[in-house]
C-alpha cells in the first residue's frame, strides 16, 4: 500500500507510463512492415519529412522509457540536487517541445499540400512560429524558478509556466 497520497500519485503515474510504453511498442510492432515499405523504402532515401516522421514516431517512446526510471527505481537514500532536477526537467521540456513542434509542422505540411491557399498557409506558419517562440520564452523565463521535491517532481511552478502548456 502507498504510504502517502504523493506516493500513490507517483505509482499511478508510473503505471500509466508503462501502459503508454506497452501500447506504443505494440503499435510499432504491428505496423513495422507497413512503415518499412511505405516510409523507409520510398523513392527519397532521406528527406525532412522522414526525419519528422522518425521524431514523431520514436522520440515519444524514448522520452517515456527514459523518464520512467526516476519514479520507479529511486532508492530511499538517494537524493537529487536542485541542479540535477533542473537538468532533468530541461531534458523533458526540450524533448516534449521537439515532439510537439514536429507533429504540428507535419500538420502544416498537410495543409500546404492539400489546400495550397497561400493566405491560410502563411497564417498557419506565422502562428506556428509564434507558438514556438512563446514556448521558448516560457521555458527560458520560468525554468530557473521551478521548485522540486526529493523525487525531482515539480512542486511549485511559476504562473508564467502556463505559456508552455
What is this entry, summarized?
The protein is 72% helix and 3% strand. It is mainly α and 165 residues long.
Would you write up a description of this structure?
This protein is mainly alpha-helical and about 160 residues long. Helix content is about 70%, strand content about 5%. The protein contains 4 helices and 2 strands. The longest helix has about 35 residues, at about 5-40. The two termini are about 30 Å apart.
How is the topology of this model organized?
Elements: H1 5-40, H2 48-72, H3 82-114, H4 118-142, E1 147-148, E2 154-156
Antiparallel strand pairs: 1-2
Helix pairs in contact: 1-2, 2-3, 3-4
- Calculate the mean pLDDT score and round it: 80
The number of distinct helices, counting runs of at least 4 residues, comes to 4
**Could you state the order of secondary-structure elements as H and E?**
HHHHEE
What portion of the residues fall into strands of 2 or more residues? Answer: under 5%
Shape: flat
- The parts where pLDDT drops under 50 for at least 5 residues are none
Radius of gyration: 19 Å
- Give the class from helix and strand content and strand pairing: mainly alpha
Give the biggest sheet. 2 strands, antiparallel
- Straight-line distance between termini: 32 Å
Q: Which strand order do you get reading across the main beta sheet?
A: 1-2
* Overall helicity: over 70%
Total number of strands? 2
What are the key terms here?
4 helices; 165 residues; two-stranded antiparallel sheet; 2 strands; mainly alpha; 72% helix
